[in-house]
Design a protein that fits this description.
This protein has 132 residues and is mainly alpha-helical. The protein contains 4 helices and no strands. The chain has one domain.
């Protein structure tokens, strides 16, 4: 197995397991909700999606997009835990998950926007002969 493929696999597994663990701990221990097989399946699917997106950005070498997406993910988990702990009269679980999704999507959108700005800036510089 080539070193690049191995690094991608390690990155994917690390992000996916970390996402799963953070969601599981938040729901099971912070909210103190029982976990069913359906919950585990849902957490697994969400973690696989988040891990796949992050790994795709890493694979494409879109450093800015990958970093900003992961920062959005971290901010989303922070906000999710904050809402879980705050527990807004029974709405803490729903608002926590919505804040996780919102921050993640926002991080992806901003990351892609920044990455495209970098791409067009580099393209403009190379067309004008400014390859400093």
């Amino acid at each position: 197995m080539k070193q690049t493929n191995r690094n991608m696999l390690i990155y994917f597994v690390a992000v996916t397991l970390l996402d799963f663990a953070l969601i599981f701990i938040g729901v099971r221990f912070v909210l103190n909700n029982p976990i069913s097989y359906q919950n585990i399946l849902s957490f697994s699917i969400l973690s696989l999606i988040l891990g796949s997106v992050s790994t795709a950005l890493f694979y494409l070498k879109w450093k800015a997009a990958c970093i900003i997406f992961n920062l959005g993910l971290a901010a989303g988990f922070f906000e999710m835990y904050r809402m879980f702990i705050k527990d807004l009269d029974g709405w803490g679980d729903l608002t926590g998950l919505i804040s996780l999704f919102s921050a993640t999507v926002l991080g992806l959108g901003i990351g892609l926007l920044v990455q495209f700005v970098i791409y067009f800036y580099n393209k403009y510089r190379s067309e004008n002969g400014n390859d400093d």
